[in-house]
Design a protein that fits this description.
- The chain is 41% helix and 14% strand.
- It is of the alpha/beta class and 191 residues long.
- The strands form two sheets. A three-stranded antiparallel β-sheet has the order 1-2-3, with no helix packed on it. It has a three-stranded parallel β-sheet with strand order 5-4-6, with no helix packed on it.
- β2 (10-14) and β3 form a beta hairpin.
- The N and C termini lie far apart (59 Å).
């Protein structure tokens, strides 16, 4: 049975084979942190669009048992839970969206995921991030940007409805499931 050791801002669990740090304030199992045995992913808090899509991607195609912890994007990488894979932190291998691509793109590439439906979704995520960062006017011919802009609107609404990151993820997954089903079935409508 692990024991909890306090450190400012973190609860550290020490067990026979385990040593895990969990952010007390952002633990997805509020009040039950001592029951968490393993943590694999830590993502920047206030998840939105690309990070929501990326968590969905991980849960469905990389690690079906993935659990996510949330931390401030200014948290140094060496302060994150040991053994956890940092997502969207500056300087992390799977860093935030940048000129090299979105976090969604980084994950597809890192884990060598070749599913054509997911690469269509990547175009949507990239188009939405491009709109969000550069605010180009979506053109009718670029359907992926149009879809991305719609999903950003949904993500903005999710931020208003859910202040808790895990609840926001859970509430958003259905939209990503639906888009994947559409692209997997190759049933998208064209203008």
């Amino acid at each position: 049975e692990p024991t909890a050791v306090e450190r400012p801002g973190w609860r550290v669990l020490v067990g026979a084979r385990q040593h895990l740090q969990i952010d007390i304030l952002r633990c997805p199992l509020q009040g039950h942190c001592q029951e968490v045995r393993r943590m694999k992913w830590v993502i920047t808090e206030r998840v939105h669009y690309d990070r929501v899509a990326s968590c969905w991607l991980i849960k469905n195609f990389v690690d079906k048992d993935a659990q996510f912890l949330f931390a401030n994007n200014k948290t140094p990488l060496d302060s994150l839970p040991k053994g956890a894979i940092p997502l969207a932190f500056p300087g992390a291998k799977l860093g935030p969206h940048d000129d090299a691509g979105t976090l969604f793109t980084h994950i597809l590439t890192e884990y060598k995921i070749s599913d054509p439906a997911l690469w269509k979704m990547e175009k949507v995520v990239t188009g939405g991030v491009r709109f969000y960062r550069q605010n180009p006017r979506p053109v009718l011919e670029d359907r992926y940007i149009q879809i991305g802009v719609g999903l950003i609107t949904l993500a903005d609404g999710m931020q208003l409805l859910y202040s808790d990151d895990q609840k926001r993820l859970d509430a958003s997954y259905g939209s990503w499931d639906a888009m994947y089903a559409l692209y997997k079935a190759n049933k998208e409508r064209t203008p």
